[in-house]
Amino acid sequence: MKKIEINPMTRLEGHGKIAVFLDDNGNVDEAFFQVVEFRGFEKFLQGLPIEEVPRTVSTICGVCRGVHFTAAMKASDGVYGVKPTETARKLREMFFNAHYVEDHAVILYALGFPDFVVGPGAPAGERNVIGLINAVGTEIGREVLRKRGLAVKIFELLGGKPNHPVAALPGGWSKTINEDERKQIEAWSEELVELGQLTVKIFGDVVLNNPGYMELVTGDMYKVPVNYLGSVDANDKIALYDGTQKFVDVNGKETGRFTGIEYIDYISERVLPWTYLKMPYQKKTGWKGIVEGEGTALYSVGPLARFNVASGMDTPLADIEYKKFFDTFGVRPVHNIMGYHWARAIELLNCAEKIRILAKDPSITAQDNRAPLGECTGEGVGIIEAPRGTLIHHYNTDEKGIVTDANIVVATTHNKGPINLAVRKAAKHFIKDGNVDEAILNHVEMAYRPYDLCLGCATHATKPGSSPVKIEIFNSKKEPVQTLKNY
Questions:
Q1: Is residue 257 predicted with pLDDT exceeding 50?
Q2: What is the pTM (predicted TM-score) of this model?
Q3: Is the separation of the CB atoms in 105 and 93 below 8 Å?
Q4: CATH number, domain with residue 298
């Protein structure tokens, strides 16, 4: 048996590798997505005052900083039994949507689009953001970077820093804005909406109008039928900052809803001996292994999952594109994972529209930015839809609000099982008779990029209260060990 290893994986956040095992005929017998780094935030958050946790967890990642900050802040509300004021909530949501715009933009243009704009078979040295700019022209590249920078300016103005924000308060938000700042954000929001429209147009022009690319987008080689989890509002529209979490099965049938602490009744996290990343699954279904299709306990989160669980989007321009998305695929739910890229572009537009709506609201300059704290409850759960998918922060504290236990379930953690399925399916499709080259291996890597992996965010503990486990999956002869087949 021969092993092919993609190490390091490219165009993602964090460090991981893919191990592909070929049979004697050179065809794929098995493939595994391994995470080889460990961070451990769940452990060293213990002992911190809960009000310091948002500022601390924002340092988990330089890209995902705003979402960890926001989820922990919402959890701190629960610890102190307080609901934020209306003004604080609007400022939080504007900050959160600005983070979405700049995050989705960098992920699409730097990590996802190069496979299509430059080409999946192009030399590795060209399949990057520089190659993309060379392909679309420096003028468009410069304009995308400038407009994305405006989202970062909003993030900094509201959050206090452009990288790791500091404005979180239990029950509030420490930074208010004046009328001049509101008008400035409103002006910037118009350009962000233009960025959203441009991004959707680029995907349409480059991918939807290219028959070869549409074979990849709609083909079985990148099709992973699993369950889906996302958050919805009272009208069943996609809810990013605040909503109810909704599960649907592989046929799109709703199988459950939960909020807050109820997540522990729906989600279990399985520890695997060959990776630092846990593999969540639906608790009520029970562990079935790394399998797809009806009956699987695995589920996906993120842009495509949100599209599959919801009935639409809550802003007009994005909702038009949402309907076009499903009209194109002609089926619901969509299991073709390349749809993540398209859904991500539409979400960028949606969040830009939300910033514009909030910035046009004159009441957002009110000064009631903090509600009085209640008694310390000793527990808080913050759940949001991060750009990569559902993010859960769960904290227990003592009577003084000092953290005693933490559990962080990150979007990439939720997606561990489907990512492994996607990599395996792509490897089996593209690697035949032992023929492997750079372009073929990139097609295998293209199977994880739609999920927008952030491995540094996702590796905190193997299970609550345990030490991290690391067991190499190869024996001394570089052969797969027997336990590989037992998952």
A1: yes
A2: 0.94
A3: no
A4: 1.10.645.10
Q: What is the dihedral of CA 447, 449, 455, 458, to 10 degrees?
A: -80
In sequence order, what DSSP letters do the residues of 125-177 get, joined into one string? TTSSHHHHHHHH-HHHHHHHHHHHHHHHHHHHHHHSSSSS---EETTEES---
Say how many domains are in the chain.
1
- Tell me what percent of the residues of the chain surpass a pLDDT of 70: 94
Q: How far apart are the first and last CA of the chain?
A: 19
Type of residue at 325: F
CA distance 9 to 12: 7
What confidence tens digit (pLDDT) does each residue in 150-192 have?
999 999 999 999 999 999 999 999 999 999 999 999 999 999 9
Tokens of 430: 């593209």
Retrieve residue 24's tokens.
């004697």
Whole-angstrom Cα distance, residue 253 to residue 228?
10
Residue-wise pLDDT for 121-152, tens only, equals 999 899 999 999 999 999 999 999 999 999 99
Residue-number span of the structural domain to which 455 is assigned: 2-486
Closest CA to 188 of 230, 141, 147, 160: 147
Q: For the chain, how long is the longest CA-to-CA vector? A: 70
Beta carbons of 444 and 18 less than 8 angstroms apart: yes
